[in-house]
Design a protein that fits this description.
about 10% strand, elongated, alpha/beta, 12 strands, 3-stranded mixed sheet, 6-stranded mixed sheet, 24 helices
């Protein structure tokens, strides 16, 4: 993997353009935190917004006058809209210089971006959860994870805004790590602090125990194929978060855990933290309170795994004495802490409690409510199906793109699986297959004549296999089948036409009796799915069609809606999954009476003059299929609407559902049928449509 310095990273030269010295001299006058925040906003607001654009996240600095009103009280993130609300007050109140505060904010932004990217990796949510549980259970691992990831975050900030290199160095040298002598610290802390400080301040080697130095040197000696050490590879901004965690677990944790065990074994010999020593040497800009957690590794990343070194240890969580089920083993029951207080016999980390407390208390990440961040991430993962297995995630993404819920989509698809198995009681053929055969016939009758290639042939227009021809000649074969010829496929008699199909469904309360409601629902799904397939086939074959054949569909209902009827799917050539799911969902609600005349009248009133002209000339066919389980609320009004439609050339068919629906034969005469057994409704509906299409 090439070094990050070799990559042409975007750079924001105007970000933090003032030198640190200028910052210090200009800010020597003591001002309130609010005034400093205002000054910070004025000076860096524009450059921070530009930085956000580079990271594909919008950044808003919280204004004290707006906090808790139209802005959050403190740090927050809107992952859906890609907005981070950054709070500079914490850093300014802690005595950070303005440029240092800007660097710290960018560092936190990169943590949030890293979290977002991790969650969107395959198994990213599961990776984050596993690592979060792991680091929550062991504070020492949390500390290790924070420090190592801070190196990566800081490299990312500087790669995007190179002018902040000076601010980074000043922050670590003046505030976070003013001392470089770590020899009085526990060895596991010497290990991780030295890696972090020497990466941030490479010209200032740290003073540490020789054993710790040897361990760090061993990591520098582990290199990948490009010559980069494992430390360089793991902290490369281009590395995926899951891969970083894998390398951390494999190469860094085993060393850290061995040193921790050595520190535990020393027990009472641990020095007490001091203000000038441990506290001044703990903390790093934006340590990973917002740190992503996880262990899995994607494919294709460059790693130093192939380097063979003596003493390699497998990655994975170490089980140390005194934790988990073996709590307390290897420690005396009342082992003393560094401060002279007795530690809990169940957790060896208590020996180092004040070191860890000091580290996290002085971390800039203390400004961020980690619990709130975790809640945001959990909700984001659930809203986007990231908590699901990868195979189920595609369904969530599709449902979101279609504008339907996953639950409704799954319900509809289960319903379609049932409908696709419905058979014609007379022929025992699948009803959907019967309709598909009709659609193929319609398309075939409208397809242009075209050349159909036949090969191989003993003679033809194109020699397609000269090697075969040559071989056959040598073998004395006079007619080599190495030629291609064409046959003209004749098109049957010319057909033309556009057609509309309107389905009117009954949503009266009586449809809840027996299976009428479910059978009507299945029939509607059959019709929609069949016409959707037909429309897709037409789009595919359109280049070969002699005429521009198109189908428009419409689904209406009576017995529900503000006016007693509803347009469930408007008349057009679209039949999206969102529309089909919405129709199916509506047909499960059966609250009303039987004003079947309302949708009939509305169809007549909503037709355009062009539509009527096309119907009159025969260029367009229109059929309305009206389903009802009983007598109309106003038979006379229904018949008048039918007469007007039929007089203008619209075919209207009534289908009665159930033996008690005989009145429909009189109301919708002469085109009416009673389906006594509603289980046969779908097949009957298909037959009606087939008869109508046969005339196209």
């Amino acid at each position: 993997m090439a070094g990050i310095e070799d990559e042409n990273q975007p750079s924001l030269e105007e970000v933090g353009s003032e030198s640190v010295e200028e910052q210090i001299s200009s800010d020597e006058v003591a001002v309130s935190a609010t005034n400093r925040t205002k000054e910070f906003l004025d000076r860096y607001g524009q450059s921070i917004r530009r930085y956000g654009a580079e990271t594909s996240l919008s950044i808003e600095i919280i204004d004290p006058d707006r906090a808790g009103k139209d802005q959050p009280e403190s740090w927050a993130i809107d992952l859906d809209n890609g907005v981070i609300f950054a709070d500079s007050r914490f850093f300014l109140e802690q005595g950070y210089e303005l440029a240092d505060s800007q660097f710290a904010i960018f560092h936190e932004v990169e943590h949030f971006r890293e979290l977002r990217d991790l969650l969107n990796e395959p198994d990213g949510y599961q990776t984050w959860q596993r690592h979060r549980r792991k680091t929550s259970a062991k504070r020492r691992l949390h500390l290790l994870d924070n420090c190592l990831d801070d190196i990566r975050m800081n490299r990312t900030v500087v790669s995007r805004a190179s002018s902040l290199e000076a601010a980074k160095s000043h922050l670590y040298q003046d505030k976070l790590f003013p001392e470089s002598d770590f020899r009085q610290l526990p060895k596991h802390l010497q290990f991780v602090y030295t890696i972090l400080r020497e990466r941030m301040l490479p010209s200032e080697p740290c003073q540490i125990d020789e054993v710790v130095r040897q361990e760090i040197n061993s990591l520098h000696q582990r290199k990948d194929k490009t010559g980069q050490s494992v430390i360089e590879v793991m902290t490369d901004p281009r590395l995926s978060s899951s891969q970083r965690l894998k390398l951390q677990e494999q190469f860094f944790e085993p060393i850290y855990e061995r040193l921790f065990q050595e520190d535990v074994s020393r027990g009472e010999d641990q020095p007490e933290p001091s203000d000038s020593g441990a506290r001044g040497q703990k903390g790093s800009a934006g340590e990973g309170e917002t740190q992503p957690d996880g262990q899995s590794s994607p494919q294709g990343e460059s790693t130093p795994d192939s380097v063979s070194q003596p003493g390699d240890q497998p990655g994975g969580e170490q089980q140390e004495s005194g934790s988990g089920d073996n709590a307390g083993q290897g420690l005396p029951p009342s082992s003393s802490s560094a401060s002279g207080r007795k530690s809990s016999p169940g957790n060896p980390e208590d020996i180092f409690k004040e070191y860890y407390d000091d580290y996290f208390a002085n971390s800039p990440d203390a400004a961020i409510n980690q619990s709130a961040v975790d809640d945001i991430l959990e909700q984001y993962a659930k809203d986007h199906g990231l908590d699901l297995a990868p195979e189920a995630r595609g369904e969530v993404a599709y449902a979101s793109a279609e504008g339907v819920s996953v639950q409704d989509l799954r319900s509809y698809r289960r319903l379609w699986e049932q409908v696709s198995e419905l058979r014609d009681p007379e022929t025992n053929e699948l009803v959907i297959d019967q309709l598909r055969a009709i659609f193929r016939r319609i398309i075939a009758e409208r397809t242009n004549p075209r050349n159909v290639p036949y090969a191989p042939q003993s003679e033809g227009e194109v020699l397609i296999n000269p090697v075969q021809a040559y071989t056959d000649v040598l073998a004395g074969k006079e007619e080599s089948e190495a030629w291609l010829t064409h046959q003209i496929k004749e098109r049957p008699a010319e057909r033309f036409g556009q057609f509309d199909v309107t389905l009117i469904c009954d949503r009266s309360g009586s449809m809840t009796n027996g299976q009428k409601g479910p059978d009507q629902l299945r029939s509607a799904v059959l019709l929609m799915e069949a016409l959707k397939e037909f429309s897709d086939e037409l789009d595919y074959a359109r280049i070969d069609l002699e005429t521009d054949l198109r189908v428009r569909t419409e689904v209406r209902s009576f017995g529900a809606g503000d006016q007693g009827h509803d347009v469930l799917k408007s008349l057009d050539s679209d039949l999206s999954e969102q529309q089909r799911v919405a129709v199916a969902k509506a047909l499960r609600e059966l609250p009303g009476s039987t004003p079947d005349f309302l949708p009939l009248e509305d169809v007549g009133n909503s037709m355009s003059d062009d539509d009527w002209a096309q119907i009159s000339s025969g260029e367009r066919r229109k059929i309305i299929i009206s389903l009802s389980d009983g007598e109309s609320d106003d038979t006379g009004r229904t018949q008048r609407a039918l007469g007007q439609l039929r007089e203008k050339g619209v075919a209207v068919v009534g289908l009665g559902m159930g033996a008690e629906s005989g009145a429909i034969e009189t109301t919708y005469a002469p085109d009416a049928h009673v389906v006594a057994n509603t289980k046969e409704l779908a097949a009957t509906l298909a037959q009606v449509l087939e008869g109508f299409l046969a005339e196209l």
